[in-house]
Amino acid sequence: MHRKKVLIVGGYGAVGRQIAQILHDRHPDLEIILGGRSPQKAAPFESTRVQTVVVDNNADDPLLYAGDNVSLIINSVNDLQDRLLMSAVRRKIPLIDLTRWTEIFQQSITKLEKADLYAPIVLSSGWMAGTASLFAMLHSATLQNVAVDIHALYSLRDKAGPDSAAYMDRMTIPFHITERGEKRLVFPMTDPIKVQFPDGYTAKCYRLDTPDHVTLPTAEHIDSASFRISFDSKASTSILVGLVNSGIWKMISGDRFRSLRRRLLYNPGTGSAHHILIHLKGLDHNGHWVERTIAISDPLGQTHLTALGAAVQAEKLLRISKEEPLVPGIYYPEDLPDERMDISEITNFFKQYGVLISH
Asked: Which of 35, 97, 213, 298 lies most in the core, judged by the most C-beta atoms within 10 Å?
């Protein structure tokens, strides 16, 4: 009997190596393959079940050297031309992808809708690998006409990989949200809402474009979805809002000023907690409006929370039997829970790794 193999592309990175460690420790029979452009690097931890391989998402066929019998691919580095994505599709390998901002996300969906799919493709580019949308879905499942508001507190001292800074280049581009079933165009860093986060920090949160706006309203019971962000430095938040709304941020867009933009907001530190507050409002089965709030805090920061989000999805795909396969197609993280993986099981998974969750 062959061991199942999971290929983690970007397996040396801040998120990838944590995914590898989590899955390795939880599944003694699982083989882990770390894919990257520099496989000569030492693996981030030693194990006879961990090996390395060349995977370059800029190559024509990134999976050329990946070997056979790969059970699942998890991608944690940018795949801007969809080369890894389509390479996985051609090989009929299930894929979880964590890396696409909304424009690339929708570009990928368009390509996938035209392709013949023989395996599930999970597009997990929502906030923290779809963790925010996953909990929004779990806690809103018994309601109708739901409005979802996700608020994130991003620490400027947190660990972060370079791909995580890509959102900075989207700050001047308007995007669509869904409100009461209708699409509306909004701008980043506008429409502030004052929010108190689980750690007591109170700040104004501003609109940001994330794929959560796209995925959540595809559920029949969700009519509205919004995402807002604040940084744990009020000065940095105010400066960014001023730069964006004055037009200066647009003037310093493009490759020429990329390093300047990075210096303003991308100075990853040794780590800091990441906080998410999810507010739900919807009708219960008696037709009464109810409100629910879910608070999520990961003391180990956003890369750890992202890795846990990916690991939850990986476990779902890995335990699917050949007798009851998941139908090939496009999935989002919030689509994956079923009657065998309920809200308490998922919550306990995150809590086991130190994530604080209250509702």
From this structure: 35
